[in-house]
Amino acid sequence: MRIMKHPVPEEIRLQKDKNALVLVYGSEVKKLPAEYLRVYSPSAEVRGHAPGQETLQTGKINVCIAGLEPVGQYALKIIFSDGHDSGLYDWDYLYQLACEYDTMWADYLRRLEAAGASREASTESLSEKNANGCASGGCGKH
Predict the structure, then answer these.
(1) What is the pTM of this model?
(2) Apex CA 65: angle with CA 61 and CA 71, to 5°?
(3) Rounded distance, CA 39 to CA 47, Å?
(4) Three-class DSSP category at 35
(5) Quick one: fold of 11-136?
(6) d(CA 116, CA 86)
(7) Any idea where the domains of the chain sit in the sequence?
(8) What is the pLDDT of residues 104-141, one digit of tens each?
(9) What confidence tens digit (pLDDT) does each residue in 82-92 have?
């Protein structure tokens, strides 16, 4: 059986305000918001080690991308303003996130609502973010 590989982006850009990652696939341009990338991080911290162990990410509306690091020829490490930097976004996963944005984002919002949770950061989350330097203006939002 042949496994189809998703395309590798020809260009990767961090939006000036660091709120989104822009991926270029030929004539197709995909913009992935930082919050979306953060709540769908491929890390075990977010996804768990097995189905059903996922942790719903809340309070990430103000997260921005603090840095990007290429990992070999197969992935991208995204460093977020809340300190999260585990999990590698391989090209297949990034393409899936780009193509399924509407469906995945709607699913995330439904899960938040069902949990009675919010995209807004709690006071504790804001304190953590300030400790990590985001409020200093480094991410371009504050």
Answers:
(1) 0.82
(2) 135
(3) 10
(4) helix
(5) NE0471 N-terminal domain-like (3.30.2020)
(6) 26
(7) 11-136
(8) 999 999 999 999 999 998 765 444 444 444 444 445 44
(9) 999 999 999 99
